[in-house]
Amino acid sequence: MAEPKIRFKNHHSDWERTVVDDVFELRNGYTPSKNVNQYWENGVIPWFRMEDIRANGGILSDSIQHITPQAVKGGGLFVPYSIILATTATIGVHAMIIADSLANQQFTNFSIRKSLIDKYDSYFIYYAFYKIDEWSLKNTNSGGLLSVDIKGLLKQPFLTPSKTEQQQIASYFKSLDVLIQSTTKKIASLKQLKSASLISMFPQAGETKPRVRFKGFEGDWENINLSEVFIERHEISTITESLPQLSFTIAEGVIKPEDRKSNKRDFLIKDIDTKKYLVTYRDDIIYNPANVIYGAIHKNSLCNGVVSPIYKIFYTDQNADFMECIVRKPSFIQEMTIFMEGTVKKLKTLKPESFLKMSAYISPSLEEQKKIGDFFHSLNIQITLETQRLDKLKQIKSACLDKMFV
Questions:
Q1: CA-derived radius of gyration, the chain
Q2: What band does 142 get if pLDDT is binned at 50, 70 and 90?
Q3: Sign of CA dihedral 210, 213, 219, 221
Q4: Secondary structure string (H, E, C) spanning 247-261
Q5: What is the DSSP letter of 294?
Q6: Which terminus in the chain has less CB density within 10 A, N or C?
Q7: In terms of C-beta density within 10 A (0-12 exposed, 13-18 middle, 19 or more buried), how is residue 274 classed?
Q8: How far apart (Å, rounded) are the C-alpha atoms in residues 223 and 207?
Q9: Which range (2-6, 34-38, 313-317, 343-347) has the least confidence?
Q10: How would you classify the pairing of strands 45-48 and 102-103?
């Protein structure tokens, strides 16, 4: 039977089978000559490129660049609610354009044949094109510029249900996309708040106290060397029940090995029964000497355990969340480049003794440190939870796209 694995209630009929060529008219995008100013100057017609999809997602109403009516060839503009599919270079990406517009030569435009417009829901077509994305990635012409096998694509089956079912499917995915977009915006807003707070709640260059403080705290902060507040931890151990093996990543810091998104570093965990590891305790500060300038410095927020000896570990009697803010500030990470050693042939690294020579302004009040640390810890938790929610929503969308279309 021609039906998807998951359907809405009260829909049981087979999906109608046709081919791409029967449903769509195809046109190629193009780039008007850059040497003709009248094609570009004061342009008002959207002209889409891959950059527009990267910046604004899959539903496009306007573009970054515009062209003038003089730049439009005899075929006219792409019609609203048609699809542009990347068929060369970065292939297997599509968007729906909802304005009279054009696109560059990387895209092929798919518009529903005029005689069939009333038969199809535009948003259903947009979501159905994820299947065509997948097909395009697997079916390219060899030789020269990478491109989709258009002749083969035109012959591909294109199955659709009744228009009522199309609209239900489209409505479901539009709701999912609204959740994805709102969660994405919330994450961006939280990260923006964190970035602004790192500037306002810590002394900047030439300053001795922050511009924004919790009520009840005044006075200058103290300029200290990190050696005054950090001690390197050298304890070693094999993996034990009380000291499980942990991994360390640039993005997430200390995590369980099974949570690592890439397992390409399995060479670090061979001979786990006898290999010696560095012990880390919760609230330690850990960094990767080679990648620290890319943000590979975090507080151990997970648990006691052991990590690869390639990392450097420190403990402190100051508030750990506060000190993590200090060492993860973009300005502080940038300053680390001055203290790194090495040549082009030998990878530059930040040695522990160099790290401890660095200086920073810190609050002399542990109570103020705690308030600041708690604030950023709470922000980090919110960002993590929203990021996990976003990942889950994307997984749901991907699974449903696979199971709700034929």
A1: 28
A2: confident
A3: negative
A4: EEECCCEEECHHHCC
A5: G
A6: N
A7: exposed
A8: 11
A9: 343-347
A10: parallel
DSSP secondary structure letters along 145-165: S-EE-HHHHHTSEEEE--HHH
The burial of 151, by beta-carbon neighbours within 10 Å (0-12 exposed, 13-18 middle, 19 or more buried), is given as exposed
Q: Are 28 and 57 in contact (CB under 8 A)?
A: no
Amino acid at 158: F
Tokens of 342: 């090495």
C-alpha 103/C-alpha 110 separation (Å) is: 12
Cα–Cα distance, 227 to 52 (Å, whole number): 48
Tokens of 24: 């769509």
Question: How far is the C-alpha of 248 from the C-alpha of 255, rounded, in Å?
Answer: 6
Extended strands (E) in 88-191: 94-97, 102-103, 107-112, 140-141, 147-148, 157-160
Q: Which residues pair with 25 in a beta bridge?
A: 111
Q: Is the dihedral of CA 210, 215, 217, 218 positive or negative?
A: positive
Backbone angles phi, psi at 358, to 5 degrees: -70, 155
Q: Which residue has the tokens 């009840």?
A: 216
Structure tokens at 322: 């506060």
Band (pLDDT 50/70/90 cuts) for residue 267 is very low
**Residue 73: strand, helix, or coil:** coil
CB contact set of 377 (below 8 Å; sequence gap of 6+): 321
Closest CA to 102 of 123, 137, 74, 133: 74
Alpha-carbon span 304 to 239, nearest angstrom:
11
For residue 45, the Cα-to-chain-centroid distance in whole angstroms is 30
CA 163, 169, 175, 178 dihedral sign is: negative
The number of residues making up the chain comes to 406
pLDDT, average across residues 263-284: 72
Percent of the chain exceeding pLDDT 70 equals 95
Q: What is the DSSP string of 208-237?
A: SS-SS--TT--SPPEEEEGGGTEEE---EE
What domains appear along the chain, each with residue ranges and CATH number?
A: 16-161 (3.90.220.20), 162-221+363-405 (1.10.287.1120), 225-362 (3.90.220)
Distance CA 66, CA 75 (A): 18
44 dihedral zone (left: phi>0; alpha: psi -120 to 50; beta) = alpha
Give the pairing of strands 312-316 and 359-362: unpaired
